[in-house]
């Protein structure tokens, strides 16, 4: 197995463990709620945490609470900026390193069917489309960002797309929170 792939897997496993510990101890929720008084910082931090499968639920709750007592537009834009930062971290990791490692692993394990499916023209445009839909949905962004990264989307397209989709998702959360 490739040393880069082992390192990447170790980083992913370590980040998952840290996220689980933060969620189980309540430290994550305390961090988000303690910054609610400073709405911009709270929205930004909750936005960063909004993109991960392990932190999306408390971040969503925090964004809804912040939106109830502040401007929904400001919360959506600042939270969207935080989510963009979170997505960029995932995107850079997936696009630059993990996709190379996965392609090397696929090539060496004789799974040529998967590489040929990815190369089919009809599916090439579907991967970024499905990735964008996942980012826009309430689902955590990792899978969608990975799909965009593996499709080799350029940063100049990814940045405004991620910001717009996450801001729209946070705006919907804010609207629902204000309505309830």
- Shape, per Cα inertia axes: globular
Task: Give the averaged pLDDT, no decimals.
Answer: 76
How many domain regions? 1
Run of helices and strands:
HHHHHHHHHH
The helical percent reads: over 70%
Work out the radius of gyration. 18 Å
Major sheet: none
Broad structural category: mainly alpha
Q: N-to-C terminal Cα separation, in Å? A: 52 Å
Percent of residues in β-strands: under 5%
DSSP, total strands: 0
Helix run count: 10
Enumerate the spans where pLDDT stays under 50 for 5 or more consecutive residues: none
Q: Can you give a write-up of this model?
A:
The chain is mainly α. The protein has one domain (3-179). 83% of the residues lie in helices and 0% in strands. It has 10 helices and no strands. Helix 3 packs antiparallel against helix 4 (56-68) and helix 8 (126-136) runs antiparallel to helix 9 (142-150). The longest helix has 37 residues, at 72-108. It is globular and about 50 Å long. The protein starts with a helix and ends with a helix. Keywords: Membrane, Transmembrane, Transmembrane helix. The chain crosses the membrane at residues 6-28, 40-61, 73-94, 157-177. This is TVP38/TMEM64 family membrane protein.
State the main characteristics.
180 residues, mainly alpha
Quick take:
The chain has helices at residues 3-25, 27-34, 39-49, 56-68, 72-108, 112-119, 121-124, 126-136, 142-150, 155-179. The protein has one domain (3-179).
